[in-house]
Structure formats: structure tokens, C-alpha cells
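Question: does this match?
>
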Amino acid sequence: MIKKEMIAMLLAGGQGSRLGVLTSKLAKPAVAFGGKYKIIDFPLSNCINSGIDTVGVLTQYRPLRLNQHIGIGIPWDLDRNIGGVTVLPPYETSTNSQWYTGTANAIYQNLEYIDYYNPDYVLILSGDHIYKMDYEVMLDYHKTSKADITLATYQVPMEEASRFGVVITDDTGCIQEFEEKPEHPRSNKASMGIYIFNWKVLRDALTELKDQPSCDFGKHIIPYCHERGSKICAYDYKGYWKDVGTLGSYWEANMELVDIIPEFNLYEEFWRIYTKSDVLPPQYIDPNGSVTESIVGEGTEVYGTIEHSVIGSGVTIGKGAVIKNSIIMNGVVIEDGAVIDKAIIAENTVVGKNTELGVGEEAENELAPHIYSFGLVTVGENSVIPANVKIGKNVAIFGETTEDEYPGGLLKSGSSIIKVGE
């Protein structure tokens, strides 16, 4: 029988609806980050850097590009004969056929996979956070504490605590109370969605709650185990951690990479972030081009000006174009004279000549103010923005747009053009 001390189960099936048009055609963990990476590269790299060589990746929403990116796990040294990385989509059985309906339900549907490795411990991870963590240190803490379950926790500002599951601990770090997204939080110690379970404890809880609709770790499994006297401890994580589930936090995390002293360092030798890389020529900066305080990917050609931005691979920045405080993903073409300030532009989009993005005063987005805010212009992949138009703030664009969709040459702040089916 195969025996692994600890295996990881990486939940990567989320739609990421708060990222708006960025996730219209792909899963949130497959969204680009830092000009070179995908969001899922961070937990995968953490696994191999922590000595975990068996990872099940649970996919569901639009998995094609995520599957293509992961492949057989070569970039992360996870192409193993025993273990390695395995993509685990929902599947049909003789008695049942259903989608994953919650985080814990997804794990329950893959009991057979976990049983195959007969682990002592199971590490549950989310596929949509940016951080570096040594899971081996967390496992040592779990063993020393003699815990049944260990939650990784992070101190968040009190005003943000209601977005998270929060815990109240005693002096020894044992969890006394657990509240899932409380309206009036009594603690700012937030669960990071990273758990280590003793496998027997997790297996029993998943089996017992198998009929619970939309079974979830925070809402169901943790409270169930707590009620039955399981010892649950909090592992306080002190490093950088960012939940990039909103456009604002996603933009902010990218912009922090180009600070003079970045809070999150992509260049550390001892904790590398691995990714699947295309073979591309080096970037080219024209004599009239200028780049300051920015990340620029391979194969990108710069004929204009880039300031405090994150630029992906194979991007073209035309003559006289100015990019500031923006994220430009792979394969985007910014034509001559375009001016872009505080925008997120997804893959293979074309921005026409002399077009301006991010002009004027802010206004609340009319379509989805809870998503399209923060003063950003958000443009979905494969979109086309015509020449000589102006676009305001808190705007969403998705699809091939034409000049007549910009009344008087302006898409005012708070507007959206989203072409369904594009």
C-alpha cells in the first residue's frame, strides 16, 4: 500500500464572480498575476517548496486553460510516478452525477483519491491567494499542538473581518469559537482557508455530513468537529497574504509588486515561484520608449511610456502611448497615442489609437457597483476598443466594441459594454 505522510487538496473550481469580466472565460486560479504567473502558481509552488509531492487539484468552472497550464506538473516538479499533481474534475458514478456543491463536498467526492495515498494528514488549500508559506512548519505546529485540525489564521483589519471566517482562541492557541463571516465580528483573526486535518477526523466528518447541501469547511465541517470535541488550533501566519478575490485587491496586489521595496518579493532564490513558461524572445524597449518602476514580460515591445505598471508577455505598446498604474495581460496591443491610467486589460485585447482609459471623475457602476469599483477600467479578454474614444472610471468592457457604442466618443464613468456570448 502507498503511504504518504501528508497530501494537499487544492480547491480551484471557483468562478471568481467578483473579478467580473476577467473570469468570464476562465477560472479564477487561471487569471494572470505579476506579468508572468497564474494565481494557482503560488499554492502549487508552496507545495513543492514545502516538500509536498502529492497534490490533487479540484477543478469545476471553465477548467480548460487551468488544465492546460497545470499539464502533468512539470514546472513545479510534480510529474511523479507516485503522487505528483492530479486534476480532479467532478465525475459521474453509477448511482450519482453531480457538480461539486461546496468546498467540503468537493473533497468528499474524492475520498477514493485520498484513500489511495492513505495519508496521516490532509492539507486543504485555496487556489486564489497570493502568499508564500512553508506548510511543513505548519505541520510541525499541528503535531506539537497535538491538534486534530489546524487552521492557518491571519490578522486582518477589524473593519474587514466580516468578509472572513474569524476565530476566537484561548492563550494556548486553541480555538474556542468560530464565526463564518459574522456581521459584527468579535475577533480579527481570520481563517485563511488553509487547513491541516488528521485524515481520520476529516474522513469521519465528511462521511457524516455527506448529505449536507453545499457542504463547506467554514460553515459545516469545522463547527461539526468543534461540537464533537475535536482539538482545533490556530496557526498564526505572519508573512504576506492576499486574497485577490476582488478587482480592487487583485489590482492592489499587482501594484505592490512594483513598489520600490515590494512587500511581496518575487525574486527570492530560496522560495521560487514556478510557472509554465512559453519560449519567447526577450523584451524590446525602443530608443523612444521608457519604462519606470514596472514589470515587463518577455517578448513585449515598448515604443511608448510605462510607469508603475505590470505588463505581461508578448504585449505591444505603440509610439506615444502612455500606461500608468495598470495591469496589461499577455498579447495585448496598445496602439499609438493611447493613454491608459488605472486599468486592468485582459489577454489579447486591442486598444485603438489615441484612445484614453480612466478619464474624468468617478461614478458608481450602473451594472454591478459591488464588482466594478475602485476607480478601475476593467476590460475582458479578446476585446476591441476603437480609436479616438474616451473611457471613464468604474467601467467594464467585454467584447468587440465599435465607435457607435461610445456616444459622442465617450463611455462615461460607471458605464459598461458587455457583449454576452463574445
Summary: The mean pLDDT is 91. The radius of gyration is 23 Å. The longest strand covers residues 189-198. The longest helix spans residues 217-227.
